[in-house]
Each structure stands twice: as structure tokens, then as C-alpha cells.
Amino acid sequence: MRAHQIMARHVITVGTEASILDAAKLMMDHHISGLPVVDAAGRLVGILSESDFLRRSEIGTQRRRGRWFQFLLGSGYAAADFVHERGRKVGEIMSSDPVTVTEETPLPDLVDLMEKRGVKRLPVMRDGRLVGLVTRADLLRAVASVAHQIPDPTADDTHIHDRIVRALDGANWCPLGLQVSVRNGVVHLRGVIMDERARQGAIVAAENAAGVKEVHDHLCYVDTYSGFYIQSAEDERAAAAKAAKERAG
């Protein structure tokens, strides 16, 4: 998938000369957490986000840097902080030089940019013109759309078994002595794990196999130092229920 397949095409923007009060109201009215900022010619020049309202003199949250730290940073940083905390126009508090993408940018690249640059939205450009916006919410909707995919016609028990085994094969956390049994789409996992995180990894691998209806965890945890082992929570509950039934009967 690429940016043009998930981006919002109707993008609400704000001008550099707009007041921060008008911008804040615009964001609240439209239930959005950020706005692309454009100049008088309509060119993208920045991004205004909720984080730009965190350090504000109106609410007493401006930065408090020690004198020694201010000396090390230089007077320019103090002046920039002052403007950002007291500026009245969008152009004074926005984040400049926004990270942008094109319509053909693949989703993995979008995610990498968001993580590396610490941003939640990416303007989509075409020939220097803003044509869309991709946000983390758009990525969430892309994930949710997978639930509507057409079922795999080969998702019988044998195929399910093979897919789970292939998914776990070669992983350095794969349970020892892994046994995967499948009946009518219901999966049972057995084996030995040395780390509880491997349990969740194996369960997720099974859940991701097309056609799986349920996953039952019978993986046994073994402490490598003491040799002490613990049954899965599911098996412990089953054993407790069986014992209670025997006592009652």
C-alpha cells in the first residue's frame, strides 16, 4: 500500500498570520490534532500540532532553564523559547520545515519517517502542492481494513498447521519441541519456552495464520537456572477445574 491509498484528501489548513486562538478553535471544531500551515501563496511552510501548545505562558507551562544551562545553549535558544511560549500568530509557534512524502511513498517508509522524526502526520505533496495528509489514525484504519479481506480458500487444518510451523521455524525464540495441532481451525500449541515473551510470540504467530478460530496455549515455561517449570495459565485453570469437579463428585 502507498500513501495515496490511505491519505485524507480534504486537508484543513491554516495560514501563518492566523491567530493561535483561531487555530486552536479550528482543531477542536474538527477534532484534529494538527494542521498544515501555508503561506499567502498557499505553499506548505510548517505544521501546527497539539505539542506546540504545551509550553505556553497563559497556562504557566513555559520552560524553566537554569542560568548555567541557558549560558551553554546561548541567547538564541532563550529567544526562541520566548517566541514559542508567547507568540500570538501561527507562524510564530509552528514547527518549520515539515517532513513530507509523495503519493507513491510506501507505507513502511511512512512508518519509518514517523518513528525516526517523531511526527504524527505527514503532508503528501505533488509537484510542490499539498494534496493530502497521512496521520497515525490513517495507518490504524489501514490495519483495521485487513479484517475485511476475503477469506483464504486454502485455510484448512493442514494449511493452517504448515503456516504456523513456517512462521515459527528459524526464530531463535521458537518453543523447544514445538507441537502444533489443528482441528476445525482450533489450534493447540505445545512445547517448552525459556522466556515468557516467547509464549506471546508463538500465540501471535498462530493467530495470524489465515483460518484460525481459536488458539490454546499449552506451552510450558522452564527456568534455565533452577529447572523449575510452570504450566500455562490455561492448563493450570483446567487442572484446577478438574480437581474441583473431582472433589465435588
Brief write-up:
This protein is of the alpha/beta class. It has helices spanning 3-6, 20-29, 67-73, 75-86, 90-93, 107-117, 136-145, 157-168, 196-207, 233-248; strands at residues 14-15, 34-38, 44-49, 95-96, 101-102, 121-126, 129-135, 176-183, 186-193, 214-222, 229-230. The longest helix has 16 residues, at 233-248.
Describe the fold and architecture.
This protein has a four-stranded mixed sheet. It has ten helices and eleven strands. The chain is α/β, with parallel strands linked by helices. It is 39% helix and 23% strand. The longest helix is centred in the last third of the chain and has 16 residues, at 233-248. The radius of gyration is 27 Å and the shape is elongated. It starts with a helix and ends with a helix. Keywords: CBS domain. Residues 7-63, 94-150 form the CBS domain. This is CBS domain-containing protein. Pfam families: BON, CBS. It comes from Bradyrhizobium quebecense.
What keyword list fits this structure?
BON_dom, CBS_dom_sf, 249 residues, alpha/beta, CBS domain, 10 helices
Layout of secondary structure:
Elements: H1 3-6, E1 14-15, H2 20-29, E2 34-38, E3 44-49, H3 67-73, H4 75-86, H5 90-93, E4 95-96, E5 101-102, H6 107-117, E6 121-126, E7 129-135, H7 136-145, H8 157-168, E8 176-183, E9 186-193, H9 196-207, E10 214-222, E11 229-230, H10 233-248
Parallel strand pairs: 1-2, 5-6, 9-10
Antiparallel strand pairs: 2-3, 3-4, 6-7, 8-9, 10-11
